[in-house]
Design goal:
Layout: H1 30-43, E1 54-57, E2 61-67, H2 79-96, H3 98-112, E3 115-122, E4 125-130, H4 142-153, H5 160-174, H6 176-194
Helix pairs in contact: 4-5
């Protein structure tokens, strides 16, 4: 039975329970991401998606997005008809799997110390059910602040924080290939590093 007031697919930090021992506040490593993806590959029920779900991981959140079976429409269906049918299939999946997804999110929160968000794709339609909005603190000098203030004065954003988020989205939309290349290159570095020798801890044999 669904707990009154519970938020679907998302669990916040619990009192007395932070990250499990062995986890640090450092950036998520490739090894940690792979372990989390393997956990979801084994935990997600068979039949939910047409293939393995895409599991994105950062320091704060795990985002799980799976592909649903395509919608078969009759002859003469328009693009709007297809979009409506795909959105309906995604909405049905969301409702039908809600309780199980909340249970899996609770387990992942306890195991990995991150909130879990969900989404689904069907044909050309993708929807995210829940995502985390995490504050990121930074210090900016005057020329950088003036960029944000210009966006606010021009009505592009309502505040400096919203303008900063707009700038990040702009880079992501226009430099996605370059950013993907950076991630891939760094992933290879982390993979090589993980295969290297490990230093012995105090009292351990070298």
């Amino acid at each position: 039975m669904r707990t009154p007031g519970a938020t679907e697919g998302r669990t916040g930090p619990r009192r007395g329970r932070g990250r499990p021992r062995g986890w640090t506040d450092e950036r998520t490593t490739a090894e940690e991401r792979q372990r989390i993806r393997a956990w979801f590959a084994g935990r997600l029920p068979d039949g939910w998606y047409t293939g393995p779900a895409a599991v994105a991981v950062d320091h704060d959140e795990i985002l799980v997005v799976g592909d649903l079976p395509p919608v078969e429409l009759g002859e003469g269906a328009t693009d709007d008809d297809r979009a409506t049918a795909e959105a309906a299939r995604i909405g049905g999946h969301r409702e039908d799997t809600r309780e199980r997804r909340m249970q899996i999110a609770e387990e992942a929160q306890a195991a990995f110390g991150r909130r879990v968000s969900w989404g689904a794709s069907c044909g050309g339609t993708t929807a995210r059910f829940t995502t985390a909005s995490v504050p990121v603190m930074t210090r900016l000098r005057m020329p950088e602040r003036l960029v944000l203030d210009t966006l606010v004065d021009a009505g592009v954003a309502r505040s400096r924080s919203e303008a900063l988020a707009w700038c990040v989205r702009l880079v992501g939309d226009n430099e996605d290939a370059w950013i993907a290349e950076l991630r891939e290159a760094f992933g290879r570095v982390e993979e090589v590093r993980s295969r290297g020798p490990r230093s012995s801890g105090p009292g351990e044999a070298a």
